[in-house]
Design goal:
Layout: H1 30-45, E1 55-56, H2 60-70, H3 85-92, H4 96-116, H5 125-128, E2 129-131, E3 167-169, H6 206-214, H7 228-236, H8 239-244, E4 266-267, H9 273-293, E5 302-303, H10 318-328, H11 336-348, H12 362-375, H13 388-400, H14 412-416, H15 424-437, H16 440-458, H17 460-463, H18 467-479, H19 487-491, H20 493-509, H21 511-514, E6 516-517, H22 519-546, H23 550-560, H24 563-567, E7 572-576, E8 584-588, H25 595-605, E9 618-624, E10 627-631, H26 638-644, E11 649-654
Parallel strand pairs: 7-11
Antiparallel strand pairs: 1-5, 2-3, 4-6, 7-8, 9-10, 9-11
Helix pairs in contact: 1-18, 2-4, 4-9, 7-9, 9-15, 9-22, 11-13, 12-13, 18-20
């Protein structure tokens, strides 16, 4: 590839071109182009035939159908539509912008399915979602259904603005069939709706918008309590929003921070797997809603399955690598070769000038790669022969040679499109959601990479590798994935280079924020769990009522009640240390009591296995109630959390247990 550097590069050393490592005012793309040329040379010298990754380009209906499946809402269309109560509960917890995003996809799918399969009855999107605040609307009680707006104006109010009022969902198609004719849609289900919205958890309502306006957040504060899409919708037409327009092109990176949350910050890894599944679905819907509000295209891609290596180190899927590694080191989450290459680079010194930027000798790197393939798992590879720049080249080669990109085929373009969002805060919010969507292996490997890159930058006074330099060097390795070919890159090389390098430096600079699960998503998970528990209790109560076992039920409930329940007064919690100590402790809640204080009390007892553990290994967990399991950070105020989840159990344990 031939780049005209004369147009892009003035005289002067690259390190001195910028007065701040966070500034792009005078940043030129020398490092990016040089890295790209090194990549092409490396691939040109590799005569092994590679199977190109084919990305399927589905039609719009298939694309949205896949989106609904990914969001856990596949039962909103097709033969099983309307049958899942789980989706009913899920939809009841969505914000207005999230529901608008779902409605848009359902409508596209149903229209496509009607065209393809007209003989089948496909639910109308307007029957799946109803406007909750329509005062004329009635539920399935024999009264008249409300009038349905046409598809052209269903989201517009009388003043012409978009109506994103929370929408409701049909409870059961069959029970509502009698009302079908009132909709003017032959064979379509009627206006039966299930009123599931609890004002306490309703997000995106007028009350929440008012809360958003009143909350004393600074411009550099990342508000995790209100949906990102709701914030964008609120700012879009406001004077504040207009003032921020064009902010995405600014050169300085703000010092974004997370305000302290009294109920505790939730990090990836703090929640139980069953709750993380809900987080994934909500993050996908929220990201889509955010992109919709900001007018940016969001399309998932799917790679056609190809034959990949089932053993080895380079060009092997992450899942296969980890399966190999876990046989050697149980519990491994990051490929061993990846860890070793980072350790080898750091072993000499991170102060080496041009680290990551200066490539190793191509022939030697190729030879080392082949030798590693043969000897790494045998433990006979001689690491003394690996020079620092060679190890850095091998690390970048490992990332590039993955059969599918580290940022995944599905979301690579979404990562690239982050640069198109108008405000830096929105770019960071989008990256936060995208990290939540990555598979666990990809996410863990990316985290290890970003932490390593930050350590390189910490030595910038010696190695001359600023945030910008590192971002420029690493962007081609993560974003110019060989399986997609070079056509798209050739069409807009400069924009691609500047944009992906900008996203790269965002990920490095704000990496600690990216692994945080927003509070509004955690609250939606709590709401889903609470609604599911309510339904289960109602079902159980109905069965018992039908069996006329009221007396036995009351007796059974008394037996179920633990002796400790009666002993624990209001404002006191009982904490256990499972597998660590036989002692449980009654703790009086105060305004200032934190989770870390409770852990410290237990550790001071020096009983059981507690005395063998280090302080940083032990945490207080919130279990049950409206959450599956959540590891609490030490700064969580227990009284505030108790009010949010009074039915939880409180357990101290290590993350490894």
């Amino acid at each position: 590839m031939n780049h005209d550097h004369s147009k892009k590069t003035p005289d002067g050393a690259s390190f001195d071109r910028s007065g701040s490592q966070d500034s792009l005012d005078e940043l030129y793309l020398d490092d990016y182009w040089k890295e790209l040329e090194n990549i092409h040379e490396t691939r040109g010298n590799n005569h092994e035939e590679r199977v190109a990754l084919v990305v399927k380009e589905p039609d719009e209906g298939e694309l949205e159908e896949e989106w609904l499946k990914e969001a856990g809402l596949s039962d909103l269309f097709g033969e099983s539509s309307g049958n899942s109560q789980e989706s009913v509960v899920f939809l009841s917890t969505l914000t207005r912008t999230q529901k608008a995003a779902v409605e848009k996809r359902v409508e596209t799918v149903t229209q496509t399915m009607r065209k393809k399969n007209k003989q089948h009855q496909i639910p109308d999107v307007r029957d799946i979602f109803r406007l909750q605040n329509d005062s004329k609307g009635k539920v399935c009680d024999g009264s008249e259904p409300s009038t349905v707006r046409t598809s052209e104006n269903k989201n517009e109010t009388q003043d012409g603005t978009k109506d994103l009022t929370p929408i409701r969902t049909v409870k059961n198609w069959e029970d509502c069939q009698t009302a079908g004719s009132a909709q003017g849609k032959e064979g379509m289900p009627g206006a039966c709706v299930n009123k599931l919205h609890d004002p306490k958890f309703r997000l995106g309502t007028v009350e929440q918008k008012s809360l958003l306006e009143d909350m004393p957040f600074l411009d550099t504060d990342i508000n995790l309590e209100i949906s990102f899409a709701e914030q964008a919708a609120n700012l879009k037409d406001s004077s504040v929003g207009k003032m921020w327009k064009g902010g995405g092109g600014d050169t300085l990176l703000p010092n974004f921070r997370l305000p302290k949350d009294k109920t505790g910050t939730t990090k990836i890894g703090d929640l139980a797997p069953q709750d993380m599944k809900k987080v994934y679905s909500l993050a996908l819907i929220e990201l889509t809603a955010l992109y919709d509000i900001l007018g940016t295209e969001f399309k998932q891609q799917k790679a056609v399955k190809i034959k990949t290596k089932d053993s080895g180190l380079f060009g092997v899927p992450l899942s296969v690598l980890l399966e190999q590694d876990q046989k050697k080191v149980p519990g491994t989450k990051i490929p061993l070769i990846f860890q070793k290459l980072i350790a080898q680079i750091e072993e000499t010194t991170l102060g080496t000038e041009g680290l990551l930027r200066i490539p190793g000798v191509a022939t030697r790197v190729k030879s080392l790669c082949q030798e590693l393939e043969a000897k790494f798992y045998e433990g006979t590879f001689n690491w003394e022969n690996v020079k620092q720049h060679d190890a850095a080249s091998l690390l970048k080669l490992f990332i590039r040679e993955l059969p599918q990109p580290l940022l995944t085929v599905e979301y690579l373009k979404a990562f690239q499109n982050v640069q198109n969002l108008p405000m830096k805060k929105q770019q960071l919010q989008a990256l936060n959601l995208l990290v939540l969507l990555l598979p666990e292996a990809n996410r863990d490997t990316l985290k290890a990479l970003l932490e390593f890159l930050q350590r390189v930058i910490d030595h910038r006074d010696k190695n001359k590798m600023t945030l910008n330099n590192v971002a420029m060097v690493m962007a081609p390795n993560l974003f110019t994935f060989h399986g997609f070919g070079s056509k798209a890159i050739e069409q807009s090389e400069f924009v691609m280079a500047a944009g992906t390098a900008n996203v790269m430096r965002f990920m490095i600079r704000y990496q600690k924020l990216l692994w945080t699960i927003p509070k509004f998503i955690v609250n939606q998970v709590r709401k889903q769990n609470a609604e599911s528990q309510k339904k289960e209790k109602k079902d159980k109560a109905m069965k018992k009522l039908l069996k006329k076992m009221a007396y036995d039920r009351e007796k059974h409930e008394k037996q179920e009640k633990t002796p400790n329940d009666a002993d624990v007064p209001q404002g006191v919690i009982r904490v256990q240390a499972l597998h660590l100590s036989k002692v449980s402790m009654a703790i009086q809640l105060t305004e200032e009591l934190k989770a870390g204080d409770i852990v410290a009390r237990f550790l001071s007892q020096k009983s059981g296995n507690l005395q063998t553990l280090k302080r940083e290994e032990v945490f207080l967990y919130e279990i049950g109630g409206n959450i599956g399991e959540r590891c609490l950070d030490d700064d969580t105020y227990m009284k505030d959390l108790y009010q949010l989840n009074p039915n939880a159990e409180w357990v101290i344990k290590s993350k490894q247990s």
